[in-house]
Amino acid sequence: MRKAEHLRFAILAAQREGNRLLIQALKPHGITPSQAEVLGLLQQHGTLTLNGLGQLLVCESGTNPSRLVERVVAAGLVERRTDAADRRYLRLSLTPEGERLATAVAEIEDYLYSSMDAACEGLDTDDMLRFLHTFIDTLPSGKALNKRLTLG
Fold it and tell me: Is the torsion defined by CA of 35, 37, 38, 43 positive or negative?
């Protein structure tokens, strides 16, 4: 197996296992990892437009995550309002239930990230991140991630 192929499948396997763990942890809360990402972004940034949210999502490709937003609105986790200044824009924010769930999601993610931190101990993760960014930075998911990194 070529090194690039090995690396690709190792990254895919790590992503799938991380997602599997996240799905299991989120299941009692009745949300998916993509929905959890929406809640986390809205908790971090407050109110976002639908387009603004789409630009920050790594879980969804494209800049219009309408169906994903419809599901969290229908679940009562996100409130959708038409922008008063420009009716073409939708403003999204967390409901009180969405805020409570976003806090629970943050705790779940913190536990997952602590496990990953422990697995990375003693490794040069800066080299790994440089490689990954060289590969993804010009692609849609890489652009979304970089936008999130610059916004803090």
Answer: positive
